[in-house]
Amino acid sequence: MPTILTNTPLSALQALVLDTETTGLDVKQARILEIGIAGHGLPTEWARLLNPGVPIPAKSTAIHGIDDAMVASARSFGEVWPEARSILDGHVLIGHSFGFDLAILKRECERARLPWQEPLWLDTRFLAILIDANLPDFTIGALCSWLNVPVTANHRALADAQATSAVFRAMAPRLRERGIHTFGEALAACRRVQSMSEELARAGWAQPPELFQLAKARQDAESAQAGGFDVYPFQHRVETLMSAPPVFIAPDETMRTALEELASRQISSMFVGSPGDPAGRVAIITERDVLRALAKTGSQALDQPVGPIASRPLVTIRSGAYAYRAIGTMARLGIRHLAVVGDDEAHVIGALSQRDLLRLRAQSSLLLGDEIDAAASAAGLGLSWAKLPAMAQALLREGIGAPDIAGIIARELGALTRRAAILAEQAMIEAGKGAAPEAYGVLVLGSAGRGESLLAMDQDNAIVFAEGAPDGPEDRWFAELGARFARILNEVGVPLCKGGVMASEPAFRGSVATWVERMEHWLGRSNPDDLLNVDIVFDARTVHGDPTLFHGLMEKFTAAASGNAAFLKLMIASHPDISPPVSFFGAIKGDEEGRLDLKRYLISRVVAAARVLAIRHRQQKRATIDRLAAVKSLGLGPLASLDDLAQAYARAQGLVLKAQLAGIAKGRPPDNRVVLSELTPLERARLKDDLSSIANLGDVVRSAVF
Asked: Where are the beta strands (DSSP E) in 282-331?
């Protein structure tokens, strides 16, 4: 049974579509003649005729073709419904003008003295109204014509259910264009449309309950299941658990030597190669490899070289990854050892074994990251990505701080981008476009690169490739790759960047030489407006492909920028001071809805300040709090207050994350605003102090930089 989460993208929703044929349209008198159920993303196809126990009016037969003779030997509703209910239970239902079907089903259950439970449901008629309220006709046939969906000629329950499924699938991208991306958002939208229809209420059609509350209850149940896991894997990175330095053995050494080394060092694996070898050329030999060789050929195996029996290719994990990532990878691949590499993935720097992780419980929620890595389609990615808010909610309940949760979200956003790029390249190969013409890297920028994403996100990504001129054949290939994985991410639930900071755009794609020219151009500009979206390049992190292509570029770019006073001044000017939204009497002022955009008034300003300070003092950290700590460690006098700035930033992240989770549960797209009336007195007091304390942050940074 699929998990029902409010954050599931509509394009990935697994549901059942239900339709009925009846003796009439009066829900008090009409009887059901046929029930049809079709799967939407599920392999379900079921239909049954029912004997209503009353004559079928000729005008009804003229519509659906079902007459008295066809149902004479059919079973009654009371006999058929338990079978249908066993299929429907626990699923989201989709229907067209669905309030009628549900009302008459409920009425039939009452007649048959059978229990009735209101399902979670979406109505394609309501969703069509949300897309275009001026359509001349909202029948299922008219919608099929409008959306170019093939429709069968017979007006029967199963055929109509299948047509409704096709209509829903075709509407999903149009709904995304109108800001309705997820199941929860569609639930809330259907509720709004139905509430405007007094006519349907008078006709006795089923009224959607507060559907977001039902969805929230189910999401809370999922969160509760996730809430019992150890939080340790989400707080500690691989670098704190790995064994280092790694132990190597030459390929021509014997297994006897390897076994002696394993025993004397009390370790369970060794790397085959030498420390200077690239990670791609290194193999691994474990205790189990030796035991299998002994079982196969006996003691003579001890005199054989280790090279031929070593395991290849090496399965690696970055040292900066959280421990839950390692758990997921080991569980999926059925292995007990991982090689640890640095962010550049160039060399093995440590080893991680299952023994190192014995104290960690690998609950299903820990496997989210690996589900993303293994997803075979955009729909699969969407189903995995939908679990992120539930995991964040569970972590928040366990007392994990917002910066740590933001780090986890950012890591998974990077993994999502990586998987989308892989799927996009596979699709290009299948379409005859060929594989990548040369080495390349996919980057995430901004908050994803810094490792501090929350749940209101869009795409900030870029591509660097080895060689090729702008609009040349290589560039055109990577332009299509960027466009394809941008579409996948948008479908999954990470919207397109309104500012165009995406690899599909020429300004954020290019060869190494193009990026060098671009960076030199940025360093020489004189207009602050030109630097919008450029500063987030300093936050870049490679999530797919060759990480060395951009790593070297950024080292040179950062070094050049740190000594370029004009450029640093422009960076500061591009984030000017703004008056704190605090009234003369000390009250925090929100917008007309009583909300305050904390990203605008606090988070973005602290991020920008930390970034420019880190660039000026050549600190290589990416995360805002880490940058502030690194600059503070230099002992630059007046910057001792950076601790307060970091705490204000962390508190703001926490407030925004809680507001986003509450909004998602209500079917509202997450944003960066908090509802001021929902803050506790202590939260309001601290927020007011934090907003006031950064009123002149630009001056403080300017003083520290110059």
From this structure: 283-286, 316-318
